[in-house]
């Protein structure tokens, strides 16, 4: 009994009846007569099935009370209904079967309603998407039409402008050919002008050289050092005498004395890079050359370091004289708000090649011959190191010509090792505080170290000089292989006369 009642409650048949009645009411005016009749029959059948189940439960309840259980209640409440032709449609099915049928019917009704709602919703969505697709299709058609119109318009314009474009291209080609031809002519003329200027400068140098040699030969016997100084001075004076005629200082946006000047920055970078290249390449090449004549590594290293020291000393001395003469010549014509020093530095920046390289190389070699700390075999001259000497003199002159010059640090043997200026060599004693000798100088600018040098530190380093073998056959100039006293005056005069004669014939042939 209780189980049957629980199943009837769980199915919720009366709620299903209520839902069907509400749905029939909402769709009553929409449905046809047949649909309304079918709905009513469906509700009656479902109600009859529920009543049948209730009568079954009533019978079971009455049987639990005995033979006359519930008779009074049935007589008072049920018999009046039966007298009014009330009947139920019982069936041959069991209570469980009827309840399951009711549950399946309710579930199918719910599924049908859900499917109908989903179908209607999908139809609405499809209608919306269809409308959007139609709108996009119309937009694409409009864009396509506009593109066709634009294409036709551009084609008409291109065909109309094509003739003008071809004419312009042909005109530009003709102008380009004419410009290239004119450029070629200007280059050839500029090359000729540069050659003429170079030849004029060379002829002036030759004339000054010949004049100086003539004066020396007339006045006194040739002393080599005085002769070379006179020759160098005459050439420099001849070049500087043109300042008043050709040079005029034009002030720029930045003073040539400024540390931020473009020439200062670019040349300083290039010179520092060249200084490093000389340490990595030229120094090693010179060491290989010296090793052919001397196996003393320390002496060879001292020679290379002395070359750098003497090159900077000679270059700085010559540059001071050059700058003094330049200042004296420019002071005659200088005027304006800018200072004389700016004009001098501007001229130096424009003419950094006005120096006598062979004379300075000779001065460096003579200084090396006077140095008691270095030596070579008796039959060998320091002229074998001339490639390094030339490059060192060039570098020293260009570093001295800067507005803020570069220099090498002052170095002496047995000085206290300074790790801010030098690094120790691989064969040094790292606990030694004193420098035995230097391998390469340190590059400085004022008090700031730009590039570190290299030194050898050993314990017991002192100022004592190494032993040096001297020979009377040792040369004091790269142009002499014997003692200066062994050369006769007649031989010198003959050589000078030959040089004068050859130069005279060359000048005459050039002017003709």
From TrEMBL:
<keyword id="KW-0446">Lipid-binding</keyword>
<dbReference type="GO" id="GO:0035694">
    <property type="term" value="P:mitochondrial protein catabolic process"/>
</dbReference>
<keyword id="KW-0963">Cytoplasm</keyword>
<dbReference type="InterPro" id="IPR031981">
    <property type="entry name" value="MIEAP_C"/>
</dbReference>
<dbReference type="GO" id="GO:0005759">
    <property type="term" value="C:mitochondrial matrix"/>
</dbReference>
<keyword id="KW-0472">Membrane</keyword>
<keyword id="KW-0175">Coiled coil</keyword>
<feature type="region of interest" description="Disordered">
    <location>
        <begin position="458"/>
        <end position="483"/>
    </location>
</feature>
<dbReference type="Pfam" id="PF16026">
    <property type="entry name" value="MIEAP"/>
</dbReference>
<protein>
    <recommendedName>
        <fullName>Mitochondria-eating protein</fullName>
    </recommendedName>
</protein>
<comment type="similarity">
    <text>Belongs to the MIEAP family.</text>
</comment>
<dbReference type="GO" id="GO:0035695">
    <property type="term" value="P:mitophagy by internal vacuole formation"/>
</dbReference>
<feature type="coiled-coil region">
    <location>
        <begin position="105"/>
        <end position="213"/>
    </location>
</feature>
<feature type="domain" description="Mitochondria-eating protein C-terminal">
    <location>
        <begin position="267"/>
        <end position="457"/>
    </location>
</feature>
<keyword id="KW-1000">Mitochondrion outer membrane</keyword>
<dbReference type="InterPro" id="IPR026169">
    <property type="entry name" value="MIEAP"/>
</dbReference>
<feature type="compositionally biased region" description="Low complexity">
    <location>
        <begin position="472"/>
        <end position="483"/>
    </location>
</feature>
<dbReference type="GO" id="GO:0008289">
    <property type="term" value="F:lipid binding"/>
</dbReference>
<keyword id="KW-0496">Mitochondrion</keyword>
<dbReference type="GO" id="GO:0005741">
    <property type="term" value="C:mitochondrial outer membrane"/>
</dbReference>
């Amino acid at each position: 009994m209780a189980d049957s009642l629980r199943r009837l409650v769980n199915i919720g048949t009366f709620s299903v009846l209520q839902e069907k009645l509400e749905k029939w009411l909402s769709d009553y005016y929409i449905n046809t007569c047949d649909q309304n009749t079918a709905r009513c029959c469906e509700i009656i059948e479902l109600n009859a099935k529920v009543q049948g189940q209730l009568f079954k439960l009533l019978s079971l309840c009455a049987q639990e009370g005995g033979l006359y259980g519930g008779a009074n209640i049935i007589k008072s409440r049920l018999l009046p209904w039966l007298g009014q032709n009330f009947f139920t449609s019982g069936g041959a099915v069991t209570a469980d079967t009827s309840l399951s049928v009711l549950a399946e019917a309710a579930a199918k009704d719910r599924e049908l309603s859900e499917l109908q709602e989903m179908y209607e919703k999908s139809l609405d969505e499809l209608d919306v998407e269809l409308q959007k697709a139609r709108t996009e299709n119309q937009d694409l058609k409009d864009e396509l039409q506009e593109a066709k119109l634009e294409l036709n318009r551009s084609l008409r314009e291109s065909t109309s402008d094509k003739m003008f474009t071809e004419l312009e291209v042909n005109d530009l080609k003709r102008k380009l050919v004419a410009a290239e031809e004119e450029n070629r002519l200007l280059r050839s003329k500029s090359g000729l002008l540069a050659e003429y200027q170079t030849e004029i400068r060379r002829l002036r140098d030759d004339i000054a050289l010949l004049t100086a040699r003539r004066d020396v030969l007339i006045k006194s016997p040739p002393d080599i050092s005085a002769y070379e100084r006179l020759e160098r001075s005459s050439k420099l004076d001849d070049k500087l005498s043109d300042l008043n005629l050709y040079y005029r200082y034009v002030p720029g946006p930045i003073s040539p004395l400024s540390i931020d000047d473009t020439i200062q920055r670019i040349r300083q970078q290039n010179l520092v890079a060249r200084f490093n290249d000389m340490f990595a390449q030229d120094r090693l090449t010179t060491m290989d050359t010296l090793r052919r004549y001397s196996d003393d590594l320390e002496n060879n290293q001292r020679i290379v370091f002395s070359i750098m020291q003497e090159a900077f000393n000679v270059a700085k001395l010559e540059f001071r004289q050059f700058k003094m003469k330049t200042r004296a010549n420019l002071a005659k014509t200088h005027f304006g708000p800018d200072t004389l020093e700016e004009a001098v530095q501007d001229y130096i920046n424009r003419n950094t090649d006005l120096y006598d390289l062979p004379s300075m190389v000779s001065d460096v070699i003579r200084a090396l011959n006077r140095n008691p700390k270095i030596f070579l075999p008796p039959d060998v001259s320091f002229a074998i190191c001339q490639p390094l000497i030339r490059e060192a003199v060039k570098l020293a002159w260009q570093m001295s010509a800067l507005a803020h010059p570069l220099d090498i640090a002052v170095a002496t043997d047995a000085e206290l090792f300074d790790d801010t200026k030098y690094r120790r060599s691989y064969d040094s004693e790292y606990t030694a505080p004193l420098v035995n000798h230097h391998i390469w100088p340190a590059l400085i600018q004022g008090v700031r170290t730009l590039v570190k040098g290299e030194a050898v530190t050993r314990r017991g380093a002192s100022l004592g000089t190494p032993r040096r073998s001297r020979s009377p056959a040792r040369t004091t100039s790269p142009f002499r292989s014997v003692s200066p006293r062994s050369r006769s005056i007649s031989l010198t005069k003959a050589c000078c006369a030959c040089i004068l004669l050859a130069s005279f014939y060359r000048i005459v042939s050039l002017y003709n």
